[in-house]
Write a structure and sequence with these properties.
A three-stranded mixed β-sheet has the order 1-4-5, with no helix packed on it. About 10% of the residues are buried. The chain starts with a helix and ends with a helix. It has ten helices and five strands, in the order αααααααββαβββαα. Among the domains are: about 100 residues, no CATH class; about 50 residues, no CATH class. Helices cover about 55% and strands about 10% of the residues. Helix 8 links the parallel strand 2 and strand 3. By secondary structure, it is mainly alpha-helical.
Length: about 250
C-alpha cells in the first residue's frame, strides 16, 4: 500500500504535469496574485484535470495555496517541471516588485512620514474650537448663494426650470442668501484647518489643502468624482439598477 507521502506526491506531480503542458495555465499562474485570480486559475485547472484536488474540500483560493505548498515540499519538482517553477518565480517577482512600487507610491503621496515630519505637519495647521449652534447655519435643506449676481443668475432656474428638479417626488429647495456675519469660521482658499467641538473636545472635521500633489493620484480622484457626478442623478429605482453594472465597471477601471 502506498504511503500518504507517496500518494500526495503522485497527486501533486499529476497537477504539475498538467500545468507544465499548458502555456495557458502557466500564464494564469503568473498572475494569480489575488483570491479572485487564484480561484480563476484553480477553476481552469480543474476543467483540464477534474481530479486535481481529489479528497480536498477547501475553497479554490485555499486549494491554490495547497498546490504551491506541494511544489515546495518535493525537491525534484523544480527540475522536473521547469516551466511551472518559472511561472511561480515570475509570480513571486511580481509580489516583490508590487511591494516596492506600493511603498514608493505611499511615500510619494505623503503617507509614509517620519515622526518629525508628521508632527511638523500637524503643528502647521490652525486649530479652531467652536461650540455647536442651536440652529444650524447656513440653513439645512437650502441652496446657498454668496452674492447678488449669483442669486440673479440661478434663482429662476432653481425655482422654475424642470431640469433643476428632474425627480418630481422631491420638493424644490429654496435659495438662501448667505449672511457672512452669521458664519463662525470662514476657511480661506489654500488654508488647512482642524475643527474641534469646544465643549466636548470631539473632532468635527478637517480640511487639508495640497495634502498630496501627486499628479497621477489627483487625476484618478478627479476621474472618480466626475464619474460619480455623472451617475448620481435623481432617477427611479429601476433606472438605478440598470445603470449599476456600468457604474461599477467605471469605478473599477
Amino acid at each position: 500500500m502506498r504511503s500518504s507521502i507517496a500518494s500526495r506526491k503522485a497527486q501533486a506531480f499529476k497537477v504539475f504535469e498538467t500545468i507544465q503542458g499548458s502555456s495557458y495555465l502557466q500564464d494564469l499562474l503568473v498572475i494569480a496574485t489575488s483570491p479572485a485570480h487564484k480561484t480563476f486559475f484553480v477553476n481552469k485547472l480543474v476543467i483540464t484535470l477534474p481530479d486535481a484536488f481529489a479528497g480536498h474540500t477547501k475553497q479554490p483560493a485555499q486549494l491554490f495555496d495547497i498546490m504551491t505548498t506541494w511544489f515546495g515540499q518535493f525537491e525534484d519538482a523544480c527540475v522536473k517541471f521547469d516551466a511551472v517553477a518559472m511561472a511561480l518565480k515570475q509570480r513571486q517577482d511580481y509580489f516583490i516588485t508590487h511591494r516596492n512600487l506600493k511603498g514608493d507610491f505611499i511615500h510619494r503621496i505623503g503617507l509614509q512620514w517620519s515622526p518629525a515630519a508628521r508632527n511638523g505637519f500637524w503643528n502647521s495647521i490652525r486649530v479652531v474650537k467652536l461650540s455647536k449652534l442651536v440652529t444650524p447655519y447656513p440653513p439645512v435643506g437650502h441652496w446657498i448663494c454668496e452674492t447678488d449676481p449669483i442669486d440673479a443668475k440661478w434663482r429662476k432656474y432653481l425655482e422654475e426650470d424642470p431640469r433643476a428638479q428632474p425627480d418630481r417626488r422631491r420638493p424644490r429647495l429654496p435659495l438662501s442668501r448667505l449672511d457672512v456675519h452669521m458664519l463662525r469660521c470662514d476657511i480661506r482658499a489654500g488654508e488647512s484647518v482642524i475643527i474641534i467641538d469646544k465643549d466636548t473636545g470631539e473632532l468635527v472635521m478637517v480640511v487639508f489643502r495640497s495634502f498630496s500633489n501627486h499628479p497621477g493620484l489627483l487625476a484618478h480622484i478627479d476621474g472618480i468624482i466626475k464619474r460619480a457626478v455623472e451617475y448620481r442623478k435623481s432617477m427611479r429605482v429601476s433606472d438605478f439598477y440598470q445603470s449599476l453594472i456600468p457604474y461599477n465597471s467605471l469605478l473599477l477601471a
